């Protein structure tokens, strides 16, 4: 998944204002495996059922924001707590 470098430079976590970086393929694979197993929740307590093609990780590596149709979804409730995947 590619994202414009200028856009990435201005994006930040909407909650903490920490910078975000592009998630690596290993993390995307682990998230998709967890989605396939079921039980993965976003911060809005909704089940995550749609596989992710890419995403952004908060600087403290606690939150993942999905990219859907090449658009970063930077909503607090759409963030996924990474502690769920170990």
TrEMBL record:
Pfam families: Trm112p. This is Uncharacterized protein. It comes from Nitrospira lenta.
């Amino acid at each position: 998944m590619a994202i414009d470098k200028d856009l990435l430079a201005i994006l930040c976590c909407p909650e903490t204002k920490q910078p975000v970086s592009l998630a690596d393929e290993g993390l995307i694979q682990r998230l998709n495996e967890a989605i396939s197993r079921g039980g993965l929740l976003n911060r809005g307590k909704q089940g995550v059922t749609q596989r992710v093609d890419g995403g952004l990780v908060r600087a403290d590596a606690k939150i993942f924001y999905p990219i859907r149709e090449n658009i970063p979804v930077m909503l607090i409730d759409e963030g996924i707590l990474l502690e769920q995947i170990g």
